[in-house]
Amino acid sequence: MTIEVKKTGDDTYLSQVINLVKEAQESKSKTQDISNRAAKWLFYLALGSGLLTFIIWLALGYSLDVAMERMVTVMVITCPHALGLAAPLVVAVSTSISAKKGLLIRNRANFEGARELNAVVFDKTGTLTKGEFGVTDIIPLEGHDEQEVLQWAASLEQNSEHPLATGMVEKAKKDSVSLKSIEEFESMTGKGLRGTVEGNEVNVVSPGYVNDHNYSYDQDAFADMSEQGKTVVFVLVNEELIGMIALADIVREDAKEAIESLKELDVHSIMLTGDNQKVADWVAEQLGIDEVYAEVLPDQKAEQVKKIKEKGWKVAMTGDGVNDAPALATADLGVAIGTGTDVAMESADIVLVKSNPKDVVSIMELSRKTYRKMIQNLWWAAGYNILAIPLAAGVLAPIGILLSPAVGAVLMSLSTVVVAINAKLLKA
């Protein structure tokens, strides 16, 4: 057994994940900045309110110790702990949840803005599709059926490492089609494969080979599949054409679910690809994509994202390749597929470890829930102080209600506990 170690120490995948989580926890959100500024001004408010309370009680003729007790109560009860912790506690819980779900946040401010997204732009290959060939159509000739055509083709292709061969063999396995034993196998450069399968000569060949040998087939069906960007091969058994098989880049099932979820959220889905328009339209039709930009050169992707943003939309870009990096950086939220290139991940605000397009929806939902919790905590902390300061100052003293510094300390601690519990209630 030979073992090859490609990365060690700080270069390992686990180390990179740890660094990304650390970046997320250290990056500041806009709401957290507001919270910190509010906590700073609350500190000054506590000092000012305490001194004002002390002066008023002395002016009313009360003794120094009574005025001092009121001042201390106000300062204790106004301590800005709850306000200062309102956002950081939610950030810590949110970061933990996102890491468990495979969402590695690199830019928290942009993550927080994901709740306002109007459009999500997807790269096609590797994001919406698997980048692997799969069988889409089997067209048998008269006197033959789909299973027979697939069986002969997959039996011949089972020894080949070509992506088309893998697609046919996988289709046979999925449909529980038994493969025949192969006796001879030969690659015909630029034409296809030939071999002997259980005593029968079998060929899986290109359109050029079929045309050169003047075989007749359904030209309309072939033209229709070719226009959709599919690769079509022909199956011959003992020099008799029995059918044709079309293959195309496999559309991810989870991509279809992701697009459906975006529609429910009233978020526009857009596909950006360098493929020709017909291929792009075919994939978009399979997924229900709202808008398609095809034949976009790698260096034009960022420019296309800018044009979409000019509509006044908040835009997320999801991609995995080197040529997606500028577009990821240009978008309001850049989302990199975890199986993508290092350049793409470095340019992104969020990395999807599971490479699942549905996680884009999870990002938006978690962003909304996180922001909602932050606002709840800020309102609780601010509301508590609005009520607590007058109470501590002795506004209810005429009816015999006065808070001691000890009670003020308990209430201050209670407000911090409530904020912490509310943050922990954040769920994925």
Structural overview:
- This protein is of the alpha/beta class.
- The protein has 3 domains: 9-96 and 365-424, no CATH class; 106-129 and 252-358, 3-Layer(aba) Sandwich (Rossmann fold), CATH 3.40.50.1000; 131-250, Calcium-transporting ATPase, cytoplasmic domain N (3-Layer(aba) Sandwich), CATH 3.40.1110.
- 52% of the residues lie in helices and 18% in strands.
- The protein has 16 helices and 13 strands.
- The chain has helices at residues 13-26, 30-59, 64-77, 81-100, 108-112, 146-157, 163-174, 207-212, 219-227, 253-264, 277-287, 301-309, 325-330, 342-347, 359-393, 405-424, and strands at residues 103-105, 119-123, 129-140, 182-188, 192-197, 200-205, 231-237, 240-251, 268-272, 291-293, 315-319, 333-337, 350-352.
- The strands form 2 sheets. A 7-stranded mixed β-sheet has the order 1-13-12-11-2-9-10, with helices on both faces.
- Strand 7 (231-237) and strand 8 form a beta hairpin.
- Helix 4 (81-100) packs antiparallel against helix 15 (359-393), helix 4 packs parallel to helix 16 (405-424) and helix 15 runs antiparallel to helix 16.
- The longest helix is centred in the C-terminal third of the chain and has 35 residues, at 359-393.
